[in-house]
Each structure stands twice: as structure tokens, then as C-alpha cells.
Design brief:
With about 180 residues, the chain is mainly α. It has one domain: Methane Monooxygenase Hydroxylase, Chain G, domain 1, CATH 1.20.58. It has six helices and three strands; from the N terminus they run H-E-E-H-H-H-H-E-H. A three-stranded antiparallel β-sheet has the order 2-1-3. A hairpin with a 7-residue loop joins strand 1 and strand 2. Helix 1 crosses helix 5. The longest helix has about 30 residues. The protein is globular, with a radius of gyration of 16 Å. The two termini are about 30 Å apart.
Length: about 180
């Protein structure tokens, strides 16, 4: 195990696999695996490609409230994914808390995204962040989950990419869904 300090950048491929495993498992915990089209550990861009269920194209027949609700829901999912990426890498892989500086940097980015994407107020952003943080901390602090996270990270390292259906099959096999 590496004794290096956790940063937002991945330390190595193993660290990257744990981050991706955490993101997928967070979506499973939120019953949102249908939002994943594919994951790819070797991607130069985002490692998670979302399915059409994630996207909500503008449509004049859809109410502005429904559009905004979908934006906020997606913001909650992506906030949970970012937090779970860090939680899986720190709490599961490295067996230590994430550095406060890393968590502060994530919070600043979540604030910016909440304002820019959803036009949320600071108190709304803080509430959403705290809800996601509490849930992900509870999930990844559970030692009974750690072997499944370890195994899913190994599966990702070996297979390199998985479709949404393959993800659901693997998570079902690991008894995570």
C-alpha cells in the first residue's frame, strides 16, 4: 500500500480503479445505475459515460420545474460520485480519512458547480453537500463493504471497461444491488 498523501490527482492505476469503483458503487446506493452507459478506466476524459436517462434535453413541452429538478438531481448524483471517489480511495484503499485540504477543495468546486449549473443558494448547496457527504461517509466507513469495493476495483483493473449492463451484473454478483 502506498504511503503517499491522497490528492485530487490519482496516485497510480490502482488508485484510479478505486476511485471509479467508488463512483459506481455510490450510484448503486442511490439506485441510479441505469444512468451509466459505460465506464472506462483508460479514458482520457471522464471515466463514466452516462446513459440517455441522465440527460434531460430542453423541450418546450417539459415544465421549467421538471427541468430544474432534473438538473438538481444530476448535481446530487455527481456530487455523490466525487465524494465517493475520494471515500473509496481514502477510507477503503488507504485506510485513512481524506485530507481536509482535499475535502475543502471539493467543497469549493461543488459550490461553484451548484451556483453555475443549478443556480442554487449557498444554504441549498451546503445542505445537498452535507446530505451526500453523510451518505457516502456512512457507506464507505462500513467495513463490511470494503471487500466488495476491493473486488470491484480489481474487476475494473482487469476488464478496463464495463457497459451499464455488465456493471449491474458485477454489482449483483458482489451482492451490492
Amino acid at each position: 500500500m502506498s504511503q503517499k498523501t491522497l490528492t485530487l490527482a490519482y496516485l497510480n492505476e490502482d488508485d484510479r480503479a478505486y476511485g471509479l469503483a467508488g463512483m459506481v458503487i455510490s450510484l448503486a446506493s442511490l439506485h441510479a445505475t441505469d444512468r451509466i452507459a459505460e465506464v472506462n478506466l483508460d479514458s482520457d476524459g471522464p471515466m463514466v459515460e452516462f446513459s440517455h436517462e441522465y440527460y434531460f434535453p430542453g423541450n418546450p413541452t417539459i415544465s421549467p420545474k421538471a427541468t430544474w429538478d432534473n438538473l438538481v438531481s444530476n448535481f446530487h448524483l455527481t456530487t455523490s460520485m466525487v465524494l465517493s471517489n475520494i471515500m473509496a480511495r481514502s477510507l477503503v484503499r488507504m485506510k485513512e480519512e481524506a485530507p481536509k485540504e482535499v475535502m475543502s477543495e471539493i467543497y469549493r468546486e461543488v459550490e461553484r458547480e451548484g451556483r453555475d449549473t443549478c443556480e442554487l443558494e449557498d444554504d441549498e448547496i451546503e445542505q445537498l453537500y452535507n446530505t451526500a457527504m453523510t451518505r457516502m461517509r456512512r457507506l464507505f466507513n462500513n467495513p463490511r463493504l470494503h471487500p466488495a469495493v476491493d473486488e470491484f476495483a480489481r474487476i475494473l483493473s482487469r476488464r478496463r471497461s464495463l457497459s451499464g449492463l455488465e456493471i449491474r451484473d458485477e454489482l449483483h454478483y458482489l451482492q451490492l444491488i
